[in-house]
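fold-stage: in
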Amino acid sequence: MRVDSATFAEAEEAAEWYAAKLAQHSDILVGTYAPIAGQDAIVRRLTVGEDVVGGWWVTGGRFLSVNLVACSPHRVRREYACPAR
């Protein structure tokens, strides 16, 4: 299992990272999926404190999970603080 992680001060930076991770793995996605949210939609979700969670089956029976956790304030769990703060 490989884990890539990063912390971003701005929602735009996080959305760019999310899009880059998906682009990096786009050639190994298998199956049919609903359209993936665009960067503007991701920025809106993060800005209002919503997490962005995505998961896709990829070749070899593996699963790709790309997630962004919103914080300060998180829409549902206001007591959660950002790890970078």
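fold-stage: in (second)
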Amino acid sequence: MTTVTTAAEALAASVETQHRPHVPQHRYREILGQFCTGITVISGCLDGRPVGFTCQSFSALSLDPPLVLVCPQRSSTTWPLIRRTGRFTVSVLGADQRDVSNAFARSGTDKFDGVGWSVSPAGNPVIDGSIAWLDCWVLNEVDGGDHEIVVGLVENLERGADSAPLLFHQGQYAQPGDRQGAGEDR
């Protein structure tokens, strides 16, 4: 009997067994810090209780069908709660929402305490003042090392506050037009 192995399966087996490169984590973070990301809050409602977490690993995946990627940390205690509902909402934070980002990045606290929110058509929290939001169905999850790769099918979306986005660059919050490290030799 012949076993058919896809290129992806062969590569994964190769990486696991022999070709796993040694990339120092601190250097990897430094290099990836050169890429600017937006900041979102991923939220859901479980048994009538709002839950959410800050996530900068968010991206558009497809226009047709409308798909997004979110990548929660495998160690997240909030993502498993949201996963159980089968849906989530992405609130894209504005430049003036650093405090919201910080609140949802904490563990062991009521992250919604003092944060205004409304209910999306899917029944999930939308953070007040967010510049956009998307309601999504969990379509697929894939192992992504120390993160989960979640594909969401967008069912509702809306623009929100007219503001610049909250960004993260070189390990700190940033705004469009910030020139951190401009002109420095690397």
